[in-house]
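Submission sheet (multi-component)
Chains listed below:
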Amino acid sequence: MPSPAPRGSVTLVLGGARSGKSRFAEGLVTASGLERVYVATAQAFDDEMRARIAAHRDSRGGAWRTVDAPRDLAAAIDAEATENHAVIVDCLTLWLSNALLADADIEHEAGLLLEALVRARGPVVLVSNEVGSGIVPDNALARAFRDHQGRLNQRVAAIADRVTLVVAGLPLDLKLPKEPS
Amino acid sequence: MPSPAPRGSVTLVLGGARSGKSRFAEGLVTASGLERVYVATAQAFDDEMRARIAAHRDSRGGAWRTVDAPRDLAAAIDAEATENHAVIVDCLTLWLSNALLADADIEHEAGLLLEALVRARGPVVLVSNEVGSGIVPDNALARAFRDHQGRLNQRVAAIADRVTLVVAGLPLDLKLPKEPS
Amino acid sequence: MPSPAPRGSVTLVLGGARSGKSRFAEGLVTASGLERVYVATAQAFDDEMRARIAAHRDSRGGAWRTVDAPRDLAAAIDAEATENHAVIVDCLTLWLSNALLADADIEHEAGLLLEALVRARGPVVLVSNEVGSGIVPDNALARAFRDHQGRLNQRVAAIADRVTLVVAGLPLDLKLPKEPS
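Outcome: structure written.
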């Protein structure tokens, strides 16, 4: 089983669709023994999305407090990643999608997010999608999206203490915290 | 070279298109030294598919017995994964595609498959595609397919003794059998 | 940081879009301490492509000599991968795209490329995309492209001394050079 995420640490969990990345990330937060906060970035625009959100919420059970943060992730992390709390952000891909729909300055907002992560006093586990390993998409919007997603994943990975790729529910560590000496 | 798959063991070989996953899986079965059975799930609906199937069959050579099982994989595994036989299932992605086209209850049929794998008396090596690491597909059917594929890969991976991701023909082990003590 | 690529060695750096694969590859070449040659395979057909090429060139800085080789990569490698030079080829995916647009015999041209790599007297680091881990593309051309890309990656990986997959800027070694004894 996953080892607990220590206080103030940042973990990035990457994976494809239905790779088991959310469940793995939830396991990290649960193992921390801290109060669990679920920062949800999903916005339900249609029934398919509503069904996915409800299914996710049901599978988590009642031990989580859920906070909705479709746009201002930095503020949510500042408010929730306090001592005695462990936070999951699920997921950066929907947050990016929301920001693009709002025509936001992605690089700027990503910078605010990184600053909040560095400030966090409790562990934060961020879930994000790997979307760049298929064929080049036909339309320019999809290409722009995967470029933004790739850059965002790189920036978060660069400051994260741990980065794990999940494939078929199994973790593959790409970066591990340095051993305490 | 790959080490042989022991009797009764279940191995899942994952990879993208043209990643070399089938060849790697065939190497595992060949290294077992047992009689080789190729369980083919492909159904040829058009010339492109027929050409792929023929090319695969030619590349295997004559040392394999081929069994077609486009739909009832559990029965094929029960019949073929016997002592002295090593079985490859190539591949779960086409089997899933066939099941969806037949409007089958995927979760139920996946459950039957898992039960057959647990019952198997000879080694079974299953090949499956990683399809969830590209951009979100435009159409709902493609999204449903990759959700089913992701869930199926997770379920098989959970019971498998070994799970290997193949990238550019090179294996990356995600799960390894426990050492005999 | 990445260890330097030794003389005459061939390194394949794989990754999805915006995975950080080019930057990682450039780090390998820079660490060699040799004169750096950037073999660019991009052809600018439109403004989006021109902007990408210019951004890449700016991010490299002035320490690189750039050679354009959209089609005849084997000749460029023969000319540039000499003693005291370290070469990056960025990238095989654009080269493959150019070759397909020119209706070339891909298998033959890939063979010429492999022969040039084996002849190289200075280190060559090749960047290539992983494009086969998304859903099956709708159109036959995209399917043919990813088949060609997968086969090309396998062929180069088979002769490479080192193969590294880059995810979110982080390297995952799939193949490492044998230790000198």
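Remark: DSSP finds six helices and seven strands in chain A.
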